[in-house]
Structure formats: structure tokens, C-alpha cells
Design a protein that fits this description.
2 domains, 5 helices, elongated
């Protein structure tokens, strides 16, 4: 079967374990950040841009009846996160196209070694 041959070749290839390790560490890192960033940025935007003092509690501790600065800070955090994702994906689209065209002309060995 083809997949058994692929797995055997992948296991015996140089650097295959490093690729798997890097993928795993990247997934762990992104998973750690995704849950924290919205709460932190909401609090910071509420304090800096909308004057929330935070004397009562942190913005993420309210279950209902959030103060207006917390609501506006959360909205602003979502807007900034969406623009950041847009920029990241546009840069990936453009840079991958440029890198692929360069590698087609000059070959991959000299480009990515």
C-alpha cells in the first residue's frame, strides 16, 4: 500500500522528525495565545481608549451588565484582530507567490538552502 511506503520513507528521511516537532510546537504556541489575546486586548483598549478604570473588576470577569468601555474595548479588539489576520494572510499570499516564482526561475536548491 502506498501510505505504508510513504510513512516508512517519511520516518527514515532526514529532518522529518524536526518538521513534526516544529509543527507540534507551533500548534501548542498558537493554541496558548488564541485564548489569552482577546481578553488582554479587550482590557487594554477599554482602559487606554475608553477610560475604564478597572476599579470594579476586569472586563472579562463580568457575566452580564458589562460597562460600556468594556463593550467598546471588546469591539475594538475584534476589529484590530480581523485587520491583523487580513494583513497576515495577504502577506502570506504575496510572499508565497514571489518565493514560488523566484524558485521557479533560480531553482529551489539555491533559494531555500
Amino acid at each position: 500500500m502506498v501510505y505504508k511506503t510513504f510513512l516508512a520513507d517519511f520516518r527514515n528521511a532526514n529532518g522529518a522528525s524536526l518538521v513534526v516537532l516544529l509543527g507540534f510546537l507551533t500548534a501548542i504556541g498558537l493554541g496558548s495565545l488564541i485564548g489569552v489575546i482577546p481578553q488582554v486586548t479587550t482590557q487594554r483598549y477599554a482602559e487606554i481608549l475608553y477610560g475604564y478604570g478597572g476599579e470594579e473588576a476586569l472586563c472579562n470577569s463580568f457575566t452580564s451588565g458589562k460597562p460600556e468601555p468594556c463593550l467598546r474595548g471588546a469591539e475594538r479588539a475584534q476589529t484590530v484582530a480581523s485587520y491583523t489576520a487580513l494583513a497576515r494572510y495577504l502577506m502570506a499570499l504575496l510572499s508565497n507567490s514571489v518565493a514560488g516564482a523566484y524558485a521557479d526561475v533560480h531553482g529551489r536548491r539555491g533559494t531555500f538552502d
